[in-house]
Amino acid sequence: MQFTVDHTDLAAAVSYAAQSLPARPPVPVLAGLLLDAAEDTLRISGFDYETSTDITVAATVAEPGRALVSGRLLADIAARVRGVVQFELAGPRLILSAGSARFTLPTLPIEEYPQLPQPGPASGTLSGGTFAEAVSQVACAASNDTAVPSLAGISLGHDQDAGTLTLTATDRYRFAVRTISWKHCNLDADHTALAPGKDLLDAAKAAAEAATLDLTLAGTPGASGLFTLRDAHHTTTLRGLEGSLPAYSALFPSEFAHTATVDIAPLKEAVQRVALVATGNTPVRLTFTTDGTLVLEAGTSDEAQAVDNVTTALEGGDLNIAFNPGFLIDGLNALTTEAAEAVDFHFTSSVKPAILRGHGSDDQGLRYALMPVRLTG
């Protein structure tokens, strides 16, 4: 095997493929990236049994061939070298040269590397940027608790009649829902599947620049248990999760007793300031008043205290409610992803979930249901 490739293309490709490298590989060969040079292209692949990444870039191939080398080491080298990078396989060693730099890398036994999973047919197509935005908005609500694996997932639900894909995530304390339009190619009925949240977020970010992204939902014909994200040069597969997320329709009522509109930027800054004294699980208390003021407070009389206020427009009577400040900021950050400048808070009562939506957003915009913290005394 002998080929040359531009250092920019190499660095980007290795960085993409390295996403699937396991932190603690169950077998040594899974720490490697597979290089396959043929027909003026370089294909780089990674796999950890749960996630696979595959990318092709242009290369000048003098002698086709394949090699398996340490992925982390190759990623470090690719990020540092400049100019045209030359690869040559010499027995069990891969020689990499760029300018005055030369590296000799031991290869891993390629015959022990597992077969990469075969992507299923596309369930539908959509913009990579649109999909990445939607995934990032709901991902903040996914759980980090490994005791309930399904809560660490993001649910993707296809609505055949509406031609939409709805993404949802929850950790029981908040529920994020975002709907996007897409063109479904091979689906003739509603279908819902659960993807691993962190892996889906990484894959969606990597595909954000794709003008057209083919998405395969796990459990659809030909897909087996795999999700696939694929564009002209990148392919990622993710093994779907078992189970499903709780039903959420009851969390989003259509009628509310109070509605408040607040500019996001000053509200987020005020929450961050008062949260400085909200140690542990201490909530931030919000008092919405009809005189156009939202007062934020945190702390207790025995400890440090903080108070701040911002302007609000309130419909309905005064309301006192408290939230986990981190969860509240997550929701505000998610709303700014869709360029919302103000947030609408919808309340039924101070003990029921509050619904956060971007001011003026349509039915497909993010809906973020946030459970309040009960106040005592």
Outline type = elongated
Number of helices: 6
In which range does the helix fraction lie? 10-25%
What is the arithmetic mean of pLDDT? 95
Q: What is the percentage of strand-forming residues? A: 35-45%
Whole-number tally of structural domains: 3
Instruction: Name the CATH superfamily assignment of the largest domain.
Output: DNA Polymerase III, subunit A, domain 2
Number of strands: 27
User: Roughly how many Å is the radius of gyration?
Assistant: 25 Å
Named CATH topology of the largest domain: DNA Polymerase III, Chain A, domain 2
Low-confidence stretches: none
Secondary-structure-based class equals: alpha+beta
For the termini, the CA-CA separation is 74 Å
Write the layout of secondary structure elements.
Layout: E1 2-6, H1 7-17, E2 32-38, E3 41-47, E4 51-58, E5 60-63, E6 65-70, H2 71-80, E7 84-90, E8 93-98, E9 101-106, E10 124-126, H3 128-139, E11 153-159, E12 164-170, E13 174-181, E14 183-184, E15 191-196, H4 197-206, E16 213-216, E17 226-230, E18 234-239, E19 258-263, H5 264-274, E20 284-288, E21 293-299, E22 305-311, E23 313-315, E24 319-323, H6 325-337, E25 342-347, E26 354-358, E27 367-370
Antiparallel strand pairs: 1-5, 1-7, 2-3, 2-6, 3-4, 4-18, 7-8, 8-9, 10-14, 10-16, 11-12, 11-15, 12-13, 13-27, 16-17, 17-18, 19-23, 19-25, 20-21, 20-24, 21-22, 25-26, 26-27
Summarize the structure.
The protein is an alpha+beta fold and 377 residues long. The chain has six helices and 27 strands.
Written description of the protein model:
Its main location: cytoplasm. Residues 251-374 form the DNA polymerase III beta sliding clamp C-terminal domain. This protein is α+β, with helices and mostly antiparallel strands. The protein is 18% helix and 40% strand. The strands form 4 sheets. It has a 9-stranded antiparallel β-sheet. A 9-stranded antiparallel β-sheet has the order 15-11-12-13-27-26-25-19-23. A hairpin with a 4-residue loop joins strand 11 (153-159) and strand 12. Helix 1 packs antiparallel against helix 2, helix 3 packs antiparallel against helix 4 (197-206) and helix 5 (264-274) runs antiparallel to helix 6. The radius of gyration is 25 Å and the shape is elongated. The termini are far apart. The mean pLDDT is 95.
